[in-house]
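notes to self, project folder thing:

trying the whole complex as one job this time. last attempt i did each chain seperately and stitching them together was a nightmare. four parts in total, labels are on each line so i dont mix them up again. if this works i'll redo the older ones the same way
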Amino acid sequence: MDIVIGRGKAARRAYGIDEIALVPGQRTLDPSLADTTWTIGGIQREIPIIASAMDGVVDVRMAVELSKLGALGVLNLEGIQTRYEDPEPILDRITSVGKDEFVTLMQELYAEPIKPELIIQRIQEIKSGGGIAAVSATPVGAAKYGMVVAEAGADLFFVQATVVSTTFLSPESVIPLDLAQFCQEMPIPVILGNCVTYDITLDLLKAGAAGILVGIGPGAACTSRGVLGVGVPQATAVADCAAARNDYYQETGRYVPIIADGGLITGGDICKCIACGADGVMIGSPFARAKEAPGRGYHWGMATPSPVLPRGTRIRVGTTGTLEQILRGPAQLDDGTHNLLGALKTSMGTLGAQTIPEMQQVEVVIAPSLLTEGKVYQKAQQLGMGK
Amino acid sequence: MDIVIGRGKAARRAYGIDEIALVPGQRTLDPSLADTTWTIGGIQREIPIIASAMDGVVDVRMAVELSKLGALGVLNLEGIQTRYEDPEPILDRITSVGKDEFVTLMQELYAEPIKPELIIQRIQEIKSGGGIAAVSATPVGAAKYGMVVAEAGADLFFVQATVVSTTFLSPESVIPLDLAQFCQEMPIPVILGNCVTYDITLDLLKAGAAGILVGIGPGAACTSRGVLGVGVPQATAVADCAAARNDYYQETGRYVPIIADGGLITGGDICKCIACGADGVMIGSPFARAKEAPGRGYHWGMATPSPVLPRGTRIRVGTTGTLEQILRGPAQLDDGTHNLLGALKTSMGTLGAQTIPEMQQVEVVIAPSLLTEGKVYQKAQQLGMGK
Amino acid sequence: MDIVIGRGKAARRAYGIDEIALVPGQRTLDPSLADTTWTIGGIQREIPIIASAMDGVVDVRMAVELSKLGALGVLNLEGIQTRYEDPEPILDRITSVGKDEFVTLMQELYAEPIKPELIIQRIQEIKSGGGIAAVSATPVGAAKYGMVVAEAGADLFFVQATVVSTTFLSPESVIPLDLAQFCQEMPIPVILGNCVTYDITLDLLKAGAAGILVGIGPGAACTSRGVLGVGVPQATAVADCAAARNDYYQETGRYVPIIADGGLITGGDICKCIACGADGVMIGSPFARAKEAPGRGYHWGMATPSPVLPRGTRIRVGTTGTLEQILRGPAQLDDGTHNLLGALKTSMGTLGAQTIPEMQQVEVVIAPSLLTEGKVYQKAQQLGMGK
Amino acid sequence: MDIVIGRGKAARRAYGIDEIALVPGQRTLDPSLADTTWTIGGIQREIPIIASAMDGVVDVRMAVELSKLGALGVLNLEGIQTRYEDPEPILDRITSVGKDEFVTLMQELYAEPIKPELIIQRIQEIKSGGGIAAVSATPVGAAKYGMVVAEAGADLFFVQATVVSTTFLSPESVIPLDLAQFCQEMPIPVILGNCVTYDITLDLLKAGAAGILVGIGPGAACTSRGVLGVGVPQATAVADCAAARNDYYQETGRYVPIIADGGLITGGDICKCIACGADGVMIGSPFARAKEAPGRGYHWGMATPSPVLPRGTRIRVGTTGTLEQILRGPAQLDDGTHNLLGALKTSMGTLGAQTIPEMQQVEVVIAPSLLTEGKVYQKAQQLGMGK
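result (full assembly):
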């Protein structure tokens, strides 16, 4: 709170992922020695990357494939997968409509109600395919479908809102979800988010969260900051929430992973989040570019269908390779979007970190990758515009 | 004054709306519980948004519609509405002329004198349509037409100059407007602006202002900073002037609203101004995009017609929806320019603020949304340029 | 020196004109009351603006016109005007050659020797036209042609190098120009530059300078910073050098004007330089856009013809109006490049400064006009790209 | 470590070359008096510039020419020159393949094994051409081919990895290169890199390095920062490593040059690195633009062919002149990419530095050349887009 915006309004400076870089230390190690294993809700995974609960990113097939490749995918229980028995023609429409009709189409498609039997069916399809069934809902959806989900055999439940808190004021007609009670009553681990502050993280941990999603406003397909003015740059948000995790662990002995969610595109982004204290990351657009992704080369935000205040936009991300190439390589692109596991292991090797906890301790510098004149010159060269 | 520009010249850092973001607190609330009511000059309004006194933004019809929708529009008494009996063909010319002839045309059109009978007529048209008659003039115009306006039955009088002060040196031939005397003599509330500092705000409050307009230089259609070098970034200006309001209220018990004016485009911008201490905002270009706006999809600054030093430019903003969609939704755009009230309520819900005074207290972080390499990459993706 | 770049290398932050803005004070005044008069080398001028000694900016006609309009133009004695009896066909070639052949052409054209008789002729043409004969040369040229210039009746002599200092180490074969001796021996006032620091300014003042040019690297047509890495942002350079002027004045009672030179384009830029302590400014590209300018809509740097290390580039600036419109209005453009005197007077009125010395005292804020996402959005709107 | 990113994560601000500029001091000197001589591994050179060990930059002919012109070129022993007897058709393929197939082609071409007899042949070709035989390999390659290189008569051996350290953890199956032992056993001087910190520089100096390469992540054709998140801006990295050199020299009396490597394009960039403490620089893309360069107008990174995690990209840089023009002029371009020696000498003259050690002491300011609105306006003018 050391910066004075004006008389009577102070603020602190918050830092984004684009503003930092990682500094090598005293030793290096062979990437093959880097151990990227982590555990969430009692489930151990080799790759600390979760695919976002978005229509264009995770369907049953993706959830199964991600599990087999050592990662995890979360199925959105309030998206098209549980509103439509056959989501394929719906996806065709979403990805072929013109830009100007997109919001209206989404509002129309989401007018179709969610069907509990489809929730059960999707979970069972993932399980029978050999996948880990991780699913997500908003607090309202969680209250409605929580028990259905648990009984259907899901492994992990993500409760996600733009911003979640343990204290929610609602009109008298609505009974808000008591997160602590929900975590206690659910027979499966509950991951809560999103939040960006130390205090809320601590509240959510005390409520029994098995994981905390961190990030408001930074995503490529998210327009919260423009529409609501709300957002905290990701490096600061992750560091603050990780500090709450550490303090809670010190006090209780229970270690709960922090998952950075939003705005991460390259291997470097993932490495930087972990260096700020994250245990894992949740990413959307990098997976939307997989051949197997339901989005057919498109990616869109989950607040888009809001009937009164749509937020989030549809982005053409293209299709660049198989899910395996994107997750485990070999890379055929040199821009950090293929072989994310290889990038993480190589970064850990370069930085001398053998484990995720060691990676959380590496040195960080503030080094904004701003668009300077020099960089514009470089870009011009890259585009063959240099004299 | 802690930054040394060079020997003998110190400065302080001022912050713009683009450099800050809002941070969620300990609780959230349902948007329906957010109360956005405010009062200006004794008139209570549901929506703390005022449409700017600009030719392309407010005419009689817009003033009436804005009143009915819970907001407010200000009619410029020195624009084309009071120079021409029928402004429609004039607006056609302004919006169809080529870019290179625009300034010259405006200088020519403004050579036509203001007609007091048209001032009376416009005010009565607004009143008879059921609207709140809020009108504006420069200090020179206020001196000339003040009493005409009051007698015509106007409800609020805005006195606006690029920069207003209580001490104005003028040539002997000119008798400057005494703002204190004017406020005292006018039978209707007088709102004064624009200013950007604590001291001038305090002076204007002591002069009897019923509202203070804050903002110099930040508007999209304003070129003051380029032409004159003058301007203070809006977050700092609002926080400083709001502090003067608070101190004046402490001392006198009279609470006078601060209105952020200039450069605000999205719901997020409005939310951030209130979080810096504003009670309401004045916006132009978002309303210029309404189907009902007189600007026919264009927006232009009111200093443009200056015969010797035009400032302000004409911008093609397009027409994106009805005034109701822009103010109250439902939104058909996802970029924060539709359903401004919904955005404000949702932001207040996200931040746990039940009232405007609570919204003025939310936490702010310095989080520049600079164009970093990462963001350019994202934009490229959005444009389908990603590999 | 409070910023650590790395161990063993500290630096201070320097500020550019684009990073500051001017803040209104407690009073305002009618622009007609603003007195912009200044004095350089005993010559009083109404407008504190000097046209740069560049081939595309000042010829005999421009020097005469600028004098008549209340300003000043400096003729470069080492440019094409003194190498060619008839410069018109030369200017035609310079402005019609392709971009790739420009540097080679300039190197070729400058191989033609300077003719002392043309120096005399140009000075007499300016005088007989009723203009103030202000001319410039490099230190080497000054040593050669100084007495010729004085005898020809010139009024002011500018000695300009990229960087000038009183201590110049040279090979034994070369006798460097002793600036102090030169100032003393010349019968007309000598203005020296460019420099950017307090210490060098003080040295040059002690050497007898009648004016100090401040600015290295910031010009639009200057590539010193890219080629040499050398440069100091203009706000800091002006403030530092103005402090030396003040200290020297305190000590000796001799007041010597500081002239900001380089990178100034709009009225706002000029206002900001004066607010940082300058008494006047030297500008090139704004005058290159005049109908009367020799550059035919082009502007180029004077280090371009260097046979071994060309610096400076040719820019297409276009022709936007008459010299009178640019200097004194009325403006037909709204971007701050027309009616520079009107902009200065209006800015002084807005800021409450009655004289240049008062303008040097106005409050400045650090307010970077960086390209933020919001501004890109605004620009897109201005270009009609908004939805 | 004075900046708090978040609770529990602190960082320091690091500065890039684009963020600084050089400040003239109390004297200037004629460029002809500037002595740019330096010594590396006992070899004295007039020009402190080394051409990077990259396929598109240095082949036998370039190495010979660079030596004759007073500089130095390093041949990559693990690139195409030692995999293919005749590299010309290989270079044709690399530079004619489409952008999308580039990475795959490089991975395929590098599957061809390195041939020790070609290593010997290339070194002998350079020596018989009259050049200095400076060659480079990764630590793995150094272990394999070190003795072959020494026996073939090479003069300097560069051991380069993205990040090098004296402590390298490797799988049991691999015996890592002991850098200290390697330096001691090699009969020729060994230059080590890259590193970015004081501590590692000191370690490498103690290991016996005859030169230290500084720079991770800043290169135009390098994507380490995007892929791995790793990188330190060059001004800070050079200053830190130069401090280690100074401390080591104080202690031991052995002076070892620091070579800034990566991201340097113009003469100004080179000058700024030396001002931060470097003794010399290693550059790639400026030489890739020479008529003699093997890259045929293209430039690409050496981590590109990695079979699992390619980093680095291919850039079209164009061909702008002869190697002599680029190194020693005369320049036919005005953008700082021709006559690099002339730029260095002129900069030293402007700054009053007679030798490289004096140049290391010149004053630096933080002066970010960010893309401000003003600069965009300038650029628009340069492109003829000004009104």
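what i see at first glance: Chain B has one domain: 16-381.
need to look closer tmrw
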